Amino acid sequence: MLEQQSTFFRKRVETSLQHAKEVRELSSRAVEEISKPVKDAFDKVLTNPKAT
């Protein structure tokens, strides 16, 4: 019984860690996509200040 409980618990922890990793990766991609237009505009202003 203890072996089954530990196996179940280990699988739950592994699944939770995998989900956390996926959420972190998705969050990072979302932040990059959201901030890209602002970064591009900022870079454009820095390289060519007369463009605005």
Task: Outline the secondary-structure elements.
Blueprint (H helix, E strand, L loop, with lengths): L1 H46 L5
Number of strands: 0
Shape: rod-shaped
The percentage helix is: over 70%
Spell out the helices and strands N to C: H
How far apart are the termini? 70 Å
Main sheet characteristics: none
Q: What fraction strand?
A: under 5%
Strand-pairing-aware structural class: mainly alpha
Number of continuous helical runs? 1
Whole-angstrom Rg: 22 Å
pLDDT < 50 stretches = none
The whole-number mean of residue pLDDT values reads 91
Please give a structural write-up.
The protein is mostly helical. Helices cover 88% and strands 0% of the residues. The protein has one helix at 2-47. The longest helix has 46 residues, at 2-47. The N and C termini lie far apart (70 Å). The model has no long low-confidence stretch (mean pLDDT 91). This is Phasin family protein. It comes from Rhizobium mulingense.
